[in-house]
Amino acid sequence: MQPMVNLALRAARNAGQDLVRRLDRFDSYQSTDQEKAKFVADCTIGLEKGVIFELKKALPEHNFAGRETGTNGDQANQPTWQICVIDDLSNFRVGIPSFAIIITCMISGKAEHTVVINPINGDEFTASRGRGAQMNNRRIRAGGINALEDAIVGYTQPMGSNDAAFDQRQRLQRLMTNAFDLRNIGSNVLSICYVAADRFQGALLSNVDEYALNAGNLIAGEAGCLMSDVSGQPLLRAPANVAVANPRLLKALLARD
Q: Which of 95, 120, 207, 250 has the fewest CB atoms found within 10 Å of its own CB?
């Protein structure tokens, strides 16, 4: 495993342990909406600062971009670390144990190393460009299923009422008829990792932000998956509606009829 990945994994594990401890101490049933909102804000901002502090001790010359705390450092020609400590705040707010910590090292605008962990069940996904992807220290590869009727397809619900959201709902309705099963676990980045690990055979995801997109694209690509926008274009810009699958299934996933 690459030193950068080891460093990020250690920071992610520490943040995950802290997050689980905070959850254990917090009584959501006896808390007001205001107290719940403060708890979420304290977790996201506090843990993000903690991850940045830990990484910065080892890599003081690097730049850092937190989803909640913004940019820290402006050193030209240096890597930038993207940090999101809770991917899927909706799940986190109501106690659904399907959310992720994301740490990604970006070099010249490309994800080179990434770590995605679910602190609740302990799943750890890692990847370095050109060196493959792993889940819990074991190499993962996309599956070979090429028919939707044999595939479990992950999805996330499109938001809004614009044309893109309408088109995405139409695609989901088609999948409900043609796929073996559909599953919505909430977290976009975990859904992509599940495809990479062949837990899902494909996924149709909505409003994927840059943190999930960069990390997921690297893990999926290193596992042999293809990812594109829903029109089939490989160049992705967040927020994006994306499809990810093994190469044999992607065309079927993107078909309109």
A: 95
Q: Which residues of the chain have pLDDT under 70?
A: 1, 160-161, 256-257
Q: Which residues contact 45 (CB under 8 A, 6 or more apart)?
A: 68, 69
- Helix ranges restricted to H, the chain: 3-25, 33-58, 89-94, 163-178, 188-196, 210-222, 250-254
pLDDT at 1: 62
* Contact call for residues 200 and 170 (beta carbons, < 8 A): no
Which residue has 């079927």 as its token pair? 252
Would the pTM of this model clear 0.90, i.e. be above it? yes
Closest of 249, 212, 237 to residue 125, by C-alpha: 212
115, 5 in Cβ contact below 8 A?
Answer: yes
Report the distance separating Cα 212 and Cα 238, nearest Å: 9
